[in-house]
Amino acid sequence: MTSILSTLLPQKETMINVLSQWVNHDSPTYQKAAVDAMGRMTVQAFVDAGATLVATHHQPEVGDHYTVSYGDSDDQILILCHLDTVWPLDETQRRPFTIENGHGKGPGVHDMKGGTLIGLFALRAIHQLQLKPRYKLVFLLTSDEEVGSPTSRALIEAEGKKSRCCLVLEGAHNRSVLTTSRKGVGRFLLEVTGVSAHAGVEPQKGVSAIEELARQIQILHALSDFDRGVTVNVGVISGGERPNVIAAYARAEIDLRVSTMADGQAVSEKILGLQPQLPGAKLQITGGITRGPFEETPQGLALFDQAQNIAQNLGFTVEKFSSGGGSDGNLVAALGIPTLDGLGSLGGGAHALTEYTVLDALPLRAALLAELMLQIK
Ligand SMILES: [Zn+2]
Asked: How far, in Å, CA of 171 to CA of 344, rounded?
């Protein structure tokens, strides 16, 4: 057994205690005060583990972002964590941290308070054993990942460009995997303007924005090509005012997923170039790719191979995984920086009431991350 693993295994109860404290603190993305309090508590734990708070990046609307580092090499490894969750304020009142059959449960337990916890304890073990990482470990703790990272994106990209590689502490879903590729994500808004008219007296004078939208939805969904990994989903629609009025306005929110940047560009152009189907209807379409695809690369796979060897030495296996969901790893991978994701907690049910993390795996996953941070060449 490695010295890191034998340091971490007896810390399982301490890990669970910190996790329960973090899960019981609500941190919805747009509740700045709550996320800031979560951030201060988390940063303090990193400082207590031997790290330095390098910068607090103040934000007016979302929680502040933080740069925390360990070691003093000029070269760095970037580790990405996020403080926000998808759950509303007071969710933890309704569903506080509990343990059932070896699973920790509660809002954000897996996405990604469990992941940030693994980062913290990996660092703690390195510090406790006075091991000297070859590269400076730079942790970014950001506060708007769950809404697509609008305010942290520039910071993540700037740190990514300075880094030899990037490790992302999103969770491993349902089995022991690490994420070597992720789909790219696009978001679009389609607004349809028609012409209102009395639905009974002179319907022929109207142009129904709802009928136009219905036709556009069919065209949009037909752009999906599951074999190529392209998915177009109209997830939210609204429009119209009253049943007896031909609708003058309707709108749709559209989600696009792609496996390659080429498909991302091609399908984005089709969405942005949609043409009205009914005479007199007008379309306005805005949006684009928010996170480019995180495509598998030889350098990224080399990181995975290294992690797989480390896991084997620690007594467990990991498989590689391609995720349909985006993460901040997409932003760094798109810059050509070798990126490995899914290094956070083992669990599942992210964004769902079934969310859980496997408590026995916490020390093992922290040992994997610590060894990887030390062994990266
Ligand atoms: Zn997450």
From this structure: 4
